[in-house]
Write a structure and sequence with these properties.
Strands 1-2 form a two-stranded antiparallel ribbon. The chain has a single domain, classed as ABC transporter involved in vitamin B12 uptake, BtuC (Orthogonal Bundle). The chain is built from 12 helices and 2 strands, in the order ααααβααααβαααα. It is globular, with a radius of gyration of 21 Å. It is mainly alpha-helical.
């Protein structure tokens, strides 16, 4: 593969996995929801995109429909368990992801069943080269990433975001203040699922192929690694984690062609990830970047006044 094309492919995948990482950071980092079935909502977004694209629906509507479908599925799956402890949610969503994968594998009418099927790209530039296609996808993916990033960032710094963190830290105290934890968690889970569904549609149209084996639990755990390494509760940390993990992944693929190791490089990267996660949880549980502070007009005003007072004293 052309070195430039390989690099552009790397950049596109960073953007797509950055969207996945942002969605999990919203759920786990800010609201404390342990979603171990993230791949299920990526799958819903990808298959929704494919089914609608076959009906000649415009690509932006396909992406939005994938996000909406994932949000609806997220609410349906999460509502029975959100009133219970977080570990029940993790078990239910993880099981749902495997059930959903079995359904699309066994039903041949859904995107070719176990064999999969080609997917139309979102933007076709005629007889374009691979490089042009990559540049087009970079623009599309990073536009969607920027929208998701700004949305999550604004939400985290809003009064709604303060309620999210309050429920995460002490749900009993939040309920004592009149906050309905089940409603808030359902809303956050729906939004996180919608972002994952949007990423799933982008992933399917970029790969231009989908099959059930693309949506395995390892994808969920990879996104978890990104969030834990980068820093839960910090959107820049979530993106940084996506960059580092994809860098490791691409490095392992390159090492496979140049190094002779007793362990397959693809497996070696997961060994390294496991060691990194253990070290981070032991010595830096907040991740590489600490949780971002809430920014409000009042907080900014206090900081400005404090700086002005310090300047006058000097």
């Amino acid at each position: 593969m052309d070195l430039l094309v390989y690099f552009l492919d790397f950049v596109v995948l960073i953007g797509i996995f950055g969207i996945f990482s942002l969605s999990l950071n919203l759920e786990f980092g800010f609201a404390g929801l342990a979603n171990f079935g993230k791949v299920a909502f990526v799958l819903v977004g990808a298959y929704t995109y494919y089914l609608l694209s076959e009906l000649a629906v415009p690509f932006y509507l396909c992406l939005l429909a994938g996000a909406f479908a994932s949000a609806v599925v997220g609410v349906i799956v999460s509502l029975p368990t959100l009133k219970l402890r977080e570990d029940y949610l993790a078990i239910v969503v993880l099981s749902f992801g495997e059930i959903l994968k079995l359904i699309v594998k066994s039903e041949g009418w859904i995107a070719g069943g176990v064999w999969g099927t080609p997917v139309l790209p979102a933007i076709s530039v005629g007889d374009s080269s691979t490089r042009i296609d990559a540049f087009v996808n970079i623009g599309l993916v990073y536009f969607c990433l920027a929208v998701c990033f700004v949305l999550v960032q604004m939400l985290a710094n809003s009064p709604y975001g303060r309620v999210m963190r309050a429920i995460r830290e002490d749900e009993l105290a939040a309920e004592a203040l009149g906050k309905n934890k089940t409603r808030y968690r359902a809303q956050i889970f729906a939004l996180g699922s919608a972002i994952a569904g949007l990423g799933g549609g982008l992933y399917a149209q970029y790969i231009q192929f989908i099959d059930p084996y693309m949506f395995v639990p390892m994808l969920t755990f990879t996104v978890w690694i990104m969030v834990l390494i980068g820093g839960p509760g910090n959107n820049w940390g979530a993106f940084l984690g996506a960059v580092l993990v994809m860098l490791f992944d691409r490095g392992a693929n390159i090492a496979k062609d140049y190094l002779t190791l007793p362990v397959d490089p693809s497996n070696l990267q997961y060994i390294i990830f496991g060691i990194l996660i253990i070290l981070i949880l032991l010595y830096r549980p907040q991740g590489l970047l600490k949780e971002s502070q809430i920014r409000t007009k009042a907080r900014d005003r206090i900081g400005h006044d404090r700086t002005a007072a310090e300047t006058e004293e000097r």
